[in-house]
Amino acid sequence: MNLNRYRKYLILLIPALYLVWSLILNLQGGPFSLSRSDPEYPYLLNGLNCATLNFNNIGHTDHPGTPFQMVTGGFIRITHLLIGQKPLVEDVLSRPDTYLAIASVFLTFLTFLLLYWLGTVAMKTNGRLTGALILQSSLLLGNVLITLPLRYNPDRILVMYNLVLIGLTIKLLFTQNYPVQKYAILTGILMGIGFATKFNFLPVLILPFLLIPDRRNRTIYGLTVIGAFFISVLPILNKFKDFRRFISGVASHDGLYGGGSQQMINWKSFVQNFIDLLIANPAYLVVLLLTLVILILYFFQPAKYQDDKRPFIALMGFVIASVVGFILVSKHFKIYYFAPVLSLTAFAFYLIWRILGNYQGPSKMRGVTRILNHPSLGIVFLVLLTGISLIGFSAQCRSRVETRDANLLTRKFYAGQVTKKDLMFIEPTWMAGPMVENALVYGISYVAHRQQFYSIYQELYPNVITWEGADKVPGHFRTAETDPESLIFCGNDLYIYSSPGRNAGQLINYLDTLAARSGTYLTKDTAFVNPRNEERVIRIRNAENWKTLSEIKAIRDLTPLDEGQPASDSYYFGDVVSGDYLEITLRIKNNDDAARCRIIARSVQSDQDGIYFEDSGSLQDIGHGWQLLRLRGRVKASPLDGNMLCQVYYPGAKTISIQDLNIRHMGRR
After folding, report:
1. Do the beta carbons of residue 338 and residue 144 sit within 8 Å?
2. pLDDT digits (tens, 9 = 90+) for 14-62
3. Distance (Å, rounded) from C-alpha 147 to C-alpha 35?
4. Considering only CA atoms, which of 439, 211, 450, 446 is closest in space to residue 313?
5. Nearest to residue 122, comparing CAs of 107, 137, 141?
6. Contact, 132 vs 7, CB < 8 A?
7. Which of 162, 282, 446, 539 counts the most CB atoms within 10 A of its CB?
């Protein structure tokens, strides 16, 4: 049967398989926050900054990653347009897993289109279905590439850039009179964006450079790469020194992310990482060895091959990119960092396949090469390469599903047992966890000026407290300091998630120390043990029956204070006795430094019993001209009638605005 009759349909086969496989993978993985929060959540939240054009809030510049953040911002905008339920920022923070899942689907669909386009390019330049299928297998020849759709990270878009590069290079090599200058400009733009997306794209930059034959167009290529790079990082140009510092740290230290000893290479680790790379990528290793054989034969007998030497130069570029990639990844090892080089494997195989078809040596050898170039044999070899990439894959899939199902048990506990009144004490870490708050806490760690998001996180996640270190005050979602004593006195259950690698013990010790310093003590019990893994949830309670006796939420609307109206209404609360604890917060906009707004809490008969609190200095900047003022303290004596009032007072002559007065009265009853 002549399959070429159906080629316009058959070149949809691999793209369709990729589309379906990507969706299956993400179903196996479950929600991103459950198992894949690093770097997905930093990119989601910085993509949100791009979507709102708040580039100054971008805090993740390590890769530097800006193009991927911009793409994510575009996906967020489209998603909100289609299914948005609330204002943009609130909607994304309320449903982050949904936005990540849809962004991942967008990448999958774009990859589907690129794979189909690559197939059409191959058909136009060669007319043979086998060649199209070989090129379309670019994302199949490696376990890392096959599982990459499970992630939402820059490496996933880097391999998409490579699909475009491969298509443009095929046009240059096998289309008559394809303009070299056009190739130099297009690949220069692509390479500049790629390098701005993530520095491990560097090895790929050598390929177009080698294929451009003249100095003038190489200069154009180089300048275009530089120009595209700097245009791509324009949103973070004022923070470019952070990227340089990160790269310098990576180059001068032997650990990940600039950690480890201050030496460029740890040779023992380097050699082991190099071996691990080869073992993990058998299909790539086979094609690399075939490439070296072809190049050696060409070096000794160039006349027996086709007159056009550019395919051999492209193969040489593949080898050089491999060497540079080996050096970069073996020094700074994570297996998926090799994805840009790995995704060139099918391209190299395609070139070998075409070179064999044009062999001009002795007739016996020509017969052998024609057999090797036969469409059926090419497809068989392609299937074998894909097959060896799938070694152990079934076990990985089972393990992935088992891990997801186990993690969902802990998530189910949080959903059913931990209410909005309970507190979650969370350690910021790259490790994923059962609750979406864990992933958001990690993500916001990579947002600049994150105090500007205090109000929205306070509204959406009022019960999330973040660990900032033993010698620091805990934060509210890392946006503003919280009141440590209120954690102990409010009476709400406090939950700490524990799993291997986390520092749950340090969080518990901090609370114990805080309680002792505050004159009380806590009880601890294990509220949940996951029977399928080592996850536990620790519940902490005040042992002396401290609780929140009353809570008043007042001044919900923006309210001006000025010389003519210097004070707010008074808000009363009763049953106050000696030893009770007060925490009162207020948001102030355009505060007057010369005559600061203040919170006053006093007994109704303060002129007789002397119970009076006032604070105007405990301020925290929460962005956009707003400050958070907090008054807190123990009531030293019982009011005469047990009643107190709270009022906001501004002694200046300007006009300021206040909003969200929250009064909490805690006591032991």
Report:
1. yes
2. 999 999 999 999 999 999 999 999 999 999 999 999 999 999 999 999 8
3. 14
4. 211
5. 137
6. yes
7. 162
